[in-house]
Design goal:
globular, alpha+beta, 4-stranded antiparallel sheet
Length: 130
């Protein structure tokens, strides 16, 4: 497995920064004139998420994304808990154990992508704040 399969890709990393997610991750992506983008490891460094002109983005791991996602979200009288299933793809969703997966779910062959898409959805739907 390549490192690029274990962190959020550039497009999702950019979107997370645009939404104000704190840029605090072990891996970073930076845009390079020569190669498009490259990875760097910079433990304990934080990127200023307000700096819209920076070409450096956090490349979040699945573990880091799970720390950002809530364990459950309120949905009316009940709450739904975070669940991850693995079949052919990873399926990330918030479920009511009585009714099963609801309408808040994302599926991808890459776990980081599915988790990042879920986080983006929760922020843009105003179900969580960053």
């Amino acid at each position: 497995m390549n490192l690029s399969d274990q962190v959020t890709p550039l497009d999702l990393s950019k979107r997370l920064r645009e939404l104000g997610v704190k840029q605090n991750s072990y891996f970073k992506l930076y845009i390079s004139d020569k190669s498009g983008y490259a990875f760097t490891v910079s433990p304990n460094s934080v990127i200023d998420s307000q700096d819209k002109y920076s070409s450096i983005y956090s490349a979040f791991t699945a573990s880091e994304l799970l720390e950002l996602l809530p364990a459950s979200i309120p949905t009316g009288a009940y709450s739904k808990g975070l669940e991850i299933l693995k079949t052919n793809n990873f399926k990330v969703g918030y479920i009511d154990h009585t009714w099963g997966f609801g309408d808040i779910q994302f599926s991808d062959e890459n776990l980081c992508k599915a988790l990042a898409k879920m986080l983006i959805h929760l922020i843009t739907s105003k179900l969580i704040e960053v």
